[in-house]
Design goal:
It is found in: Cell inner membrane; Cell membrane. The chain is of the alpha+beta class. The protein has 8 helices and 8 strands. Strands 4-3-2-1-5 form a 5-stranded antiparallel beta sheet.
Length: 279
């Protein structure tokens, strides 16, 4: 065994040198890939996928050459046969890892959900910061970082808030029952259209929605920026503008009323004995 080990040292040294060269070539290949891809308008997630595939291909080739140097009898056919048997066992043992890997590839290939988008999936809301082949990093709006397995984002519905620059926002406004509804709707419309953040060119919707317990409710919808902050800022300005306009017009925004009804009661002592018959 010792003699065989000594005889194998040159092959091991050559294999180690091949692995070292593979590492160097992989680094330079990724830089070349970045330089070539950087001239195009390709998405960041797809760029990461190309870099990963280039690195993976070079490492696969380098490891195979090193293995042939150490084991001269190794052929591509025998290697593939061994990999096939091993892949079945590894596939069962690391099923979740491979599932996330394939989901990561598909997520990077599709056009939607780019880095920088604000998304919501499975009660997770935040900004996509990084996408890898196994996981996606989502920065919550409160600042925490959530590492989400790619299979969750691939198998469940994902709501993308920033897919376009604008989206529709809404608020419910109630007016008292003695209000002339057409007049109130006109005042609300003019107040919303006067807000700077509102895209009045895309229209403002005012719908009488329902008869509530103390008010007639209007559903007010408008278009503004798609980011959560843009939505909060526009909603704040819209509510302030509607409140000021209704106050100036003398239209009440009622709070819930509670009506108490009291019935006059007669003491039992004044009723007399109802069991006695009158003569």
């Amino acid at each position: 065994m010792g003699k065989g080990f000594v005889e194998a040292l040159p092959s091991l040294a050559i294999a180690f040198f091949i692995i070292l060269m593979t590492w160097i070539v992989a680094r330079f290949a990724v830089r070349i890939s970045d330089a070539v891809v950087g001239r195009t308008e390709i998405r960041s997630s797809l760029k990461n996928l190309i870099d990963t595939l280039v690195r993976l291909g070079i490492w696969t080739l380098g490891i195979f050459i090193a293995a042939v140097v150490v084991i001269p009898d190794l052929t591509p056919a025998s290697l593939l046969a061994g990999l096939g048997i091993g892949a079945v066992a590894i596939g069962f043992a690391f099923q979740d890892i491979f599932e996330n890997f394939l989901a990561g590839v598909l997520i990077m290939l599709r056009e939607k959900m780019r880095i920088g988008d604000v998304i919501e999936c499975e009660d997770i809301t935040g900004k996509v910061e990084h996408i890898t082949l196994r996981e996606t990093h989502v920065r919550k709006l409160s600042g925490e970082l959530t590492v989400v397995p790619n299979s969750i984002l691939f198998k469940n519905p994902v709501e993308i808030f920033t897919d376009v620059d604008q989206r529709r926002h809404q608020v419910v406004v109630g007016v008292s029952y003695d209000t002339q509804l057409d007049h109130a709707a006109d005042i609300i419309r003019r107040a919303v259209e006067g807000v700077d953040d509102v895209l009045a060119s895309k229209g403002v919707d005012i719908f009488a929605q329902e008869f509530n317990s103390s008010s007639v409710d209007f559903l007010v919808r408008w278009w503004a920026g798609s980011t959560p902050r843009a939505g909060w800022e526009s909603k704040d300005k819209v509510i302030r503008a509607i409140k000021a306009a209704l106050d100036d017009a003398g239209i009440e925004i009622p709070f819930p009323y509670v009506t108490h009804t009291f019935k006059e009661t007669v003491p039992v002592s004044l009723l007399g004995d109802t069991t006695q018959k009158t003569p």
